[in-house]
Amino acid sequence: MAGFSRLTTTIKGEENSMKKVSVILFVLALAGAAYAQQVETALGNGKAHPSSNQAGGGGAGGNIVYHSGGSVIPVAHLVCIFWGPSFNDPTSADYNYARTLQNFRNQFGTTGEYNTITQYYQNIGGQQFIQLSNLAGTQADWFDTTQPPTNVTDTIVQQEVQRYVAANGTDYSTVYEVFIPAGSYSSDGSSTSCGGPNLAYCAYHSHYNDALGQPVKYSIEPYPNCSGCSVSGWSAVQNQEHFVCHETREAVTDALGNAWFDRRGYEADDKCAWSPTPFIGTNGYSYQYEWSNANSGCVKTR
């Protein structure tokens, strides 16, 4: 977008189960450079109020800190829920889009890009570090060939996840990630993703408590078909890979919004979102940098 740069704001707060949102706003570019900022602020009215005089979260908030009793997912899995007929239609570009994302998931949990978060842990019944793992797990992905509504609210995302777990059971170490096609958009209050009337974010992760009182982790991954959620020159699936990278690692390191974040509330991925620029890494897939306490900075791999 000529004359503008992306402002990425990750919101942390307590609105309907500690939603974490990768938010995109737009600000005037300085000297034509691509600046990004990640600000975490309490959601009460559903809106972020970031300042706009910093490029990137980076080290300004120092290392992220473990908060006593906070939950991570030591051995995580990821189920892909592709909602919409185009994802299972061989004549549609979305068919290969979905399968590329499955292949990305299948290798991500054992890469150096995922290894960046194995330094983080939880102290619940002893210290448990995050481990490299096969994110595919044992639960099958779901191609739901019904048509999602144009406006996919957070309640509707939860209902889609609930339909999946009702048929397949719940793995509390799994992040259930819902992908929607270009004809739909995500909304949370007045804020929307690409395709909606009020672009404010690209993706988010959250959780709800089921009938047993246990937290079910999920993410919404809208189709990244707008400039505010795109890296210049990347395809839609490359942009989506890097959002899956971001939201999955955050859901693992800060599963319930009470574990790892810095003094300003930034989670590890928020501190490095958009700046440095996301990159092509292991096996030719796209990733973003991750905050490493061990390095006191943003790193590609460990």
Q: What is the structural class? A: alpha/beta
Low-confidence stretches: 1-18, 23-56
H/I helix tally? 4
Largest sheet, if any? Answer: 7 strands, mixed
- The dominant shape is globular
What is the percentage of strand-forming residues? 25-35%
- Determine the fraction of residues in helical runs and give it as a percent range: 10-25%
* Spatial gap, N to C terminus: 34 Å
Main sheet: strand order: 1-2-12-13-9-4-7
Q: Total strand count, please?
A: 18
Report the C-alpha radius of gyration, rounded: 18 Å
The SSE string, one letter per element, is EEEEHHEEEEHEEEEEHEEEEE
- Summarize model confidence as the mean pLDDT: 84
Task: Tell me what you see in this structure.
With 302 residues, the chain is α/β, with parallel strands linked by helices. The chain contains four helices and 18 strands. The strands form six sheets. A seven-stranded mixed β-sheet has the order 1-2-12-13-9-4-7, sandwiched between helices. A three-stranded mixed β-sheet has the order 8-10-11. A hairpin with a 3-residue loop joins β5 and β6. The protein is globular, with a radius of gyration of 18 Å. It starts with a strand and ends with a strand. The N terminus is likely disordered.
